[in-house]
Design brief:
11 helices, alpha/beta, 19% strand, Rossmann fold, 16 strands, 29% helix, six-stranded parallel sheet
């Protein structure tokens, strides 16, 4: 009996957050073994491609690649931003990481409404999508209706691969060389340094560095800060631009003695990232992000059983517990002109951590580090038991089973055998 054809249009072969999301979703649906899964490759901005050929464990996805779409599939899924959603199949699913602020463009809601069902990564994104209402006006500017989310919307979290991301108690398992870093206590940040003036880039990298300097300037034997960061691509120009930004921040302190900031700008494999998280010199992760649709590196780091401190708002608080980890308080503020774009509009808001609490978070983690280790172990257990790839795959299967209709099947017509009458 033939299986329903399930076509997924997604950037599965790109080095991007959406690429990682697409690979996991595609793999989960393939492993359910209920559908004939085909992948229609897409680009993702200017991020490089060729991910699957560079990673042997993902080469199998090429066997499912569809060069072009010729027939109407039974099930059609798009993994992208909602404004690009189009209903191509008999049943249509939109899948998006969602939104990092308090609003989105009306075209995103219109895109959601074109599909039969939609998936997003976090409760934050779901709440934003479902709370928005836009006035619909005719050619005479008269209000004729309201545009709001009208289709079923499910939260499908981004599960962590427990075979790769895990606690490494034996330090002999760690070959990543950080010998050029002299400090034995380092904070770690992972993420892109995006557009925006100081304090207004989405990951809030610049202000995080300033808070780090404020916390440990002019003291003996300060800790270090490691940035695993880029501008979107790992390149010489990216590295030099980030170093220039760090120098610009340092220059505002004049004669102060500042702690060291180290930049890791090259590409690391998943296994190497896990080694970085588990490295003895890396003691805690910090993220003062202004907004996340999910925040996958934060979940992956938790499995190292080390403390993590995050902004107390948006997608990552689904899995970062305030009981086991540190939520840094703050308030919502309008998106600055320097970071606004066609999707992140300046009339929307996102989070800004409190300066006082951010600086104190650095100081407290360093001064009372052992106090936070028990909570870090419980946080790791939460990720392992509730937010793994296998838990995500089970959720995907349950949602599909509950919502995908039965499709007509082509069956062979068997006529009964009849005797030829004798004349």
């Amino acid at each position: 009996m033939s299986k329903p054809v399930f076509v997924i249009s997604c950037p599965f072969d790109t080095y991007s957050g959406y690429g990682a999301r697409a690979r996991d979703i595609a793999k989960a649906i393939i492993e359910l073994d209920k559908y004939d899964v085909k992948l229609l490759p897409q680009r993702w901005g200017d991020t490089p491609g060729g991910f699957c050929n560079d990673h042997d464990e993902w080469k199998f996805l090429h066997k499912h690649t569809l060069p072009n779409l010729q027939n109407k599939p039974d099930i059609w899924m798009q993994i992208t931003i909602p404004s690009e959603f189009q209903p191509v199949g008999k049943y249509n699913i939109g899948c998006t990481a969602g939104i990092e602020s308090t609003g989105c463009d009306v075209s995103w809601i219109e895109g959601l409404n074109r599909m039969n069902m939609n998936w997003t990564s976090s409760k934050h994104s779901k709440q934003v999508f479902e709370s928005l209402k836009f006035e619909q006006r005719d050619n005479n500017k008269q209000i004729v209706g309201t545009i709001k989310s009208e289709k079923p919307l499910h939260v499908v979290f981004e599960g962590v691969n427990l075979d790769v991301y895990k606690h490494l108690p034996n330090k002999n398992e760690i070959s990543l060389d950080l010998s050029s870093i002299e400090e034995q206590f380092c904070f770690l940040f992972v993420g892109h340094w995006m557009q925006g003036n100081l304090g207004h880039d989405r990951k809030n990298v610049g202000l995080m560095i300033r808070y780090f300097f404020d916390a440990f300037k002019n003291i003996p034997n300060p800790p270090a800060l490691i940035l695993k960061a880029s501008l979107g691509r790992n390149s010489y120009m990216s590295r030099e631009e980030i170093l220039n930004r760090i120098r610009a921040i340092k220059s505002t302190y004049k004669d102060a003695k500042l702690p060291n900031v180290y930049l890791l700008n090259g590409g690391l494999s998943d296994a190497e990232m896990n080694e970085l998280y588990n490295h003895p010199k890396v003691k805690a992760m910090i993220s003062f992000t202004k907004g996340e649709g999910y925040g996958r590196p934060l979940a992956e780091f938790c499995l190292s059983k080390k403390p993590i401190a995050v902004s107390g708002w948006s997608g990552h608080i689904d899995f970062i517990s305030n009981e086991f980890s540190l939520w840094v308080p703050g308030s919502l503020e309008n998106i600055d002109d320097s970071s606004a774009n066609q999707w992140l509009k300046k009339e929307f808001q996102w989070f800004q951590v409190s300066t006082k609490h951010a600086v104190n978070t650095f100081k407290t983690l360093k001064a009372k580090y052992p106090k936070f280790l028990t909570g870090a172990k419980r946080q790791a257990h939460k990720i392992k038991t509730e937010f793994s790839y296998d838990a995500m795959k089970e959720l995907v299967g349950n949602i599909l089973n509950a919502n995908i209709p039965e499709f007509p099947k082509q069956v062979e017509l068997t006529l009964p055998t009849m005797e030829t009458p004798k004349l």
